[in-house]
Amino acid sequence: MKMLSLYEEQVYALLRIVVGFLFCCHGLQKIFGLFGGAPAEMPLGLLWTAGLIELVAGALVALGAYTRPAAFLASGLMAVAYLMAHQAQGLLPIVNRGELAVLYAWAFLYIATRGDGIWSVGAIVGQGGLEPA
Q1: What total of structural domains would you count in the chain?
Q2: Phi-psi sector, 37: left (phi>0), alpha (psi -120 to 50), beta
Q3: What confidence tens digit (pLDDT) does each residue in 68-89 have?
C-alpha cells in the first residue's frame, strides 16, 4: 500500500473539499431551507448561528481559504452540537445518533492541523497561503 502515499496530498485535498462542501450543504439547509429544510425542533437563534457557521466555514474549507480557523470553528461547533443534542440520549454515538457530529468534529480538527494544502485558494495566493502566521 506504499503506492497510495504517492497521492497523499491529492487525497487530503479531496477530503478537505468534500467535507467542506457537505458541511456547507448543512448551512444551506438551515439558512435557505434547501435539501428538505431546517430541523423543526431547533430554536431559531441556534438555527441561524449554526447555519451561518456551517455555510461560511464549510465554503472556506472547501475552497481552501482561511482553512485552519474555519475548520477549527467548525470542529468546535460539531463538538458542542454533539454535547447539546446527542450526549443526553446515550453514551455512545451509535446509540445517540451522533456519529455524523463526531466525524465532522474530528475531520475538521484534522483539517485545522493540516491547513490549505494543494488545490486551494491559499496555495494559489502564495507560499504561506491565507493563514495567519
Answers
A1: 1
A2: left
A3: 999 999 999 999 999 999 999 9
